[in-house]
C-alpha cells in the first residue's frame, strides 16, 4: 500500500517533468528515464541500491538492442498492463539501449536480424542452444541479449508460464526440457552472453562521435536497382537527426527522400524516410570512428523487401566508394559508374583496363566506357589518391550464378484476410571459375550482382504433382516473388492453401551464353504474430 | 429399450426418406443408448444421438474455449470437460445441459494448466487432473512441480482438490483403471495410486532399454479414445536401425503403442505396423482389439496381429480424432474442423456426416453410453 501511494505521487511529478521536457525539446537525461521507470514499472518491479545508481529487478540485469527493448516494452504493454505514453516509450528505448545496450562487437555477428534480413539459414549455432532455443527463434534473437545467469533462468521460467506447452513440443517432450533449459541452457547462455563484458565496459567509456554531416550513400532497392545518393543528417537534438537523401538509380532515374533518424547506443542508426512517396526504413551501424555506416534499407510496410545500404562520411577527403557494376568482361566495352566524393585527378581502373571514353564527370560521380584486357582478377580502381578497395572484377567467362537469398520463405496472404502477403526479393551474383577453371571452388572470383531474368519451377516431384508452380506464386522481371492468395483453395488436394515449394531460377546472359543459378523458396502460411525481431 | 428405439426410428422416417445415409449408420438394436460428445468453438458441448447422428442438444460451456478434452462418467449421464484455456473442469449432465461440477484450478497468483490430463475413477466418485502450476510473482514466473489433483465429484460447484501428489513433468493424457490406479501418460508410462500417491512404472518409453538399434520413441497423444474397448492407448513412433550407427536413411520406421487394459491394469508395448504416414489418434475395434483405426489426413485400418495396414482412405481435410460405435460398425472421424465424417468400419466408405456450428479444434470426441 505504501508502494502504491509512492507511485501515485511520482506519477504526477513524472508526467509534469516529461511534459516540460517535450515542450522545451530538451535532451532526455538519465534521471528522466529513471523517473519513468519508477513511475510506470514499480507496480511490479522492485528497486534496490542507492538513489544514485538504482537497480531495478528484471531490468538492470539485462542488456539488449533498441529493438530488443522495444519488444520488452511492447510485451509489458500487451500482456502486463503497462501504460506508457508514446514519448515515454521512446525515452525508455533510448535510455535502456544507451545504458544497457550491446557493444558494436557484440551485435556485429547478428546484425542481419536487426536489419530484418531474415531469409537466411543460420549456421554455427551451438547444437544444444539450437535444440532448446532456435527450434522456435532465430539464434540471433537470443544472441543479441546479455543477461545474468539468473536472468536467463527467469527467461526460461517465463516461457513455461507464458507458453505452458513449450515442454511438450517436438524436440522438448523427448527430454527433461525444463530441467535442461533452466540449468544447462541457462548456464550456457550466462557463459556465452553474460551481462558484464569487457566489450561493453569499453564501449561505455568510448567517446561517441555524432553522425551529423553529409554522407555518400550507395545501396540497392528491389524493383528499382542500385543507387547512389548524398544523405544529409542535421542534428536536431541529442541522438536525433533530420535526414534528406538525393541521388540516382543506376538507370539514371532520380531519387529523393527525407525523414528522421535516431541513434541508439552511440552507433545504432535507425531512420524512417519517405523516398519518392514510399516509406522506407534504414537500419545501419556506424563504425567506431563514425566515418562509415553499414546496414540495410527496406520498405516500412514490407521489411523483407530491401537491400544493402552503406555510407561514407564527407570529411573533405577524396573517397572512391563503389564502381557500378563491379565487373567488366575482358575484351568487351562497357559503361561503368564511379561513385565517391572529391574525385579529382587521373582515373586508373587497374592493370589492362582502358578508359575508352568519359561520358560525364563530376567530383562525386564519373560515368565512362571501359574495356579490359589481360588476365582475370580483381583490379583496384583509383581516381587521384582515392582507391576502391572492393575492386573491379575483370573476368573472361561467367561460370556460376548464385541466387540470393539461397533459401527464402514467403507467406500467402491478402484475399480479404488479415495478413498481407509476405514477398521476397531476389538478386543474382555472378562468379567466374578462377584459376582452377572449376566453378564452385574457393578460388571462384566474385563478380558482383548481375542483371538476370527470373523464373520459378516446382522444387521436386511432389511439388510438381501438386502444381505448386501454378498456385504458390510468381516472380517478376525485377526478381520480386509474390506468393499466392491466402485461404483454402478447392482446386488443390485437401483444399490446401496456395502453399508450395519452388525453385527460383536466375538466368544471366554472358555474351552469347546463358548461365543459371537456383534458389529455394518455401511459400508458407501466414504468420499471425508480428515480432519486432523474429 | 427396444420399444423406445422403435419409436425413435419411426420419428426418423422423414429424414430417412431424404437420404439412405442414416439407415446405414443407425446401429442395429442395442440395449444401450450411445451419445457422441464433442466441443466446438466458441465454446459449446454437443450431444449427438448416435442412432440418428443428429445433434440432440447443445450446451454452452462457461469460460473460454480449450482444450475440450473430456472424461465421461461411467454411468454415461455426465461428462467432465477441460475448458477455459486448459485450466477449469466443468461437469455437465448431458441429458439436461445442467452444469453440475466446476473446479477452477488457477488463482490470480497461481496459473494451473492441465495438458489433456483428465479422468474419472471407475466407481464414478473421483475426478483426477494433472496440474502444472506456475506461481505468478509480481515480476517473474516460478515453475512449480506438477501434481495429481484428486477431486470429489460430489463436491460439485467450486470443487477443490481433496488430495494432491507429486508427479513427473510432461504428463498428457491420463486414465483411471478398474484396479483403482491412474495411468499417467508421460515420458514413460506410469501409474499412481490416488489414495497414497505411490507410483509404479507401467512401461518405459523415453527410457526404454532396447539398445542402440532402437530410437527412443516419440510418445505423445492428445486424446484418449479407448473407452469403447476399455483400454488406453499411448501411441509412439520409433525407428529400428540396421546397426549401431543410427543411420536414419536405412532405418525402418515403426508405429508402436503402449496399451493398458483398464480392467486389469496390464500393459502391452509393441510395434504395431510400419510408419508410412502421420496418425494423430488411434481407436481399436471393440469386437477385435487387433484391429486399429487411425485418423489425421487419412482414415486408416490396421491389423496389428499381422503388423499390416489394411486400408487407407484420403480425407478431404485433417481430422485429429476418431471414435467408434459400441458395436464396432461405425467410425466417427472428427476434430480440427466443424464436421464429423461417418464411415463404415468394414470398408472405410463414408456413410454420413454431421455438421457442427463451430470448429472442434483440439476437442475430444467421446462416447457416453447411457445403459438401459
From TrEMBL, chain A:
Domain Quinohemoprotein amine dehydrogenase alpha subunit: 209-313, 319-395, 401-530
Record Gene3D superfamilies: Cytochrome c-like domain, Immunoglobulins, Quinohemoprotein amine dehydrogenase alpha subunit, domain 2
Keyword Hydrolase: no
GO function terms (MF aspect): electron transfer activity; heme binding
Signal peptide location: 1-30
Pfam families per UniProt: Dehyd-heme_bind, Qn_am_d_aII, Qn_am_d_aIII, Qn_am_d_aIV
Family annotation (InterPro entries): Cyt_c-like_dom_sf (IPR036909), H-AmDH_asu_dom2_sf (IPR036718), Ig-like_fold (IPR013783), Ig_E-set (IPR014756), QH-AmDH_asu (IPR023887), QH-AmDH_asu_dom2 (IPR009111), QH-AmDH_asu_dom_III (IPR015183), QH-AmDH_asu_dom_IV (IPR015184)
Keywords: Signal
Domain Quinohemoprotein amine dehydrogenase alpha subunit haem binding stretches: 32-200
Domain of life: Bacteria
Protein name: Quinohemoprotein amine dehydrogenase
UniProtKB/TrEMBL annotation, chain B:
UniProt key word Signal: yes
Assigned keywords, A-Z: Signal
InterPro entries (UniProt xref): Host-pathogen_enzymatic-act (IPR051200), QH-AmDH_bsu (IPR023879), Quino_amine_DH_bsu (IPR011044), WD40/YVTN_repeat-like_dom_sf (IPR015943)
Signal peptide start and end residues: 1-31
Entry annotated with the keyword Signal: yes
Superkingdom of the source species: Bacteria
Protein name stated in the entry: Quinohemoprotein amine dehydrogenase beta subunit
Species the sequence originates in: Marinobacterium halophilum
